[in-house]
Amino acid sequence: MAIAFVKYHGLGNDFILIDNRHSSEPCLTPEQAVVWCDRYFGIGADGVIFALPGQTALPGQPVPGEADTDYTMRIFNSDGSEPEMCGNGIRCMARFVAALEGETEAGRAYHIQTLAGVIVPKLEAGGKVTVDMGLPRLLASEIPTTLVLPDEKVINHSLQIAGESWDITCVSMGNPHCITFVDDVAAVPLEAIGTQFEHHPAFPQRINTEFIQVVRPNYLKMRVWERGAGITLACGTGACASLVAGVLTGRCDRRATVELPGGCLEIEWSGDRIYMTGDAQRVFEGTMHL
């Protein structure tokens, strides 16, 4: 059985996109996704994204934020785990479904159901996509973490990792993030400590971890260890969470450029909602045999 795919990347955070509109369930198992993501024996990617049919709200059971959605997004990480959402991934999905529809006009918005709720990406000129990422969630029960009481926030809280004390701030963008501010992101031994953050017992669903260097209040540098994927070149939800953490700790403005190893994202906390703008680029297409 051959399955068609298209590979996209958002600032180097790369994904295999599959047209899965024929079924409400992904056409691959998590174990098969692991094989597809392998960079030596498969296609190579940080995850597989499935564009499933949209969902229609039932009476008394509205879809959060909207009555109906255009598509449903499911994603399996390269380790087979399933995250709630992916910021770079949903930009890639917006470009993917636009190509499926033959849509090229800037301004077209999609309402996409995810495990983190309804997310709304909008096509921009020049291959960019702006995403309404919704509301940041700050309570410990929403992250989730056991570092403080469930109805408390984790802001500048001490966490012991690898014999060091790290001041962390936790934010959920529908998926969990732990942010720590450092003087030089290049000096962080990410390969050695990333997995220790991810699997720390204080985070029962594991955690994405961002290390942030404040260059200016409106310009941040970031390196990331992603839950289920390890070191990646970019993380959209992580960039959003990091700006929120910077505002909460008085380190940055509510609008800033976030520089990641794969490129830059523009993040804005406007009112209650977070907006992210960045590229999504098609790489190649093909078929893979099961």
Structural class: alpha+beta
Order of helices and strands: EEHEEHEEEEEEHEEEHEEEE
Largest sheet: 17 strands, mixed
State the CATH architecture of the largest domain. Answer: Roll
Domains (count)? 2
Topology-level CATH name of the largest domain: Diaminopimelate Epimerase, Chain A, domain 1
Counting copies of identical and different chains, the oligomeric state is: single chain
Walkthrough of the structure:
With 290 residues, the chain is of the alpha+beta class. The chain folds into two domains: 2-133 and 279-289, Diaminopimelate Epimerase, Chain A, domain 1 (Roll), CATH 3.10.310; 140-271, Diaminopimelate Epimerase, Chain A, domain 1 (Roll). It has helices at 30-37, 87-101, 190-198, 236-248; strands at 2-10, 13-19, 47-53, 71-77, 112-114, 117-123, 128-134, 157-161, 164-172, 176-181, 208-216, 219-226, 230-232, 255-260, 263-270, 273-279, 281-289. The chain has a 17-stranded mixed beta sheet that branches. Strand 8 and strand 9 form a beta hairpin. It starts with a strand and ends with a strand.
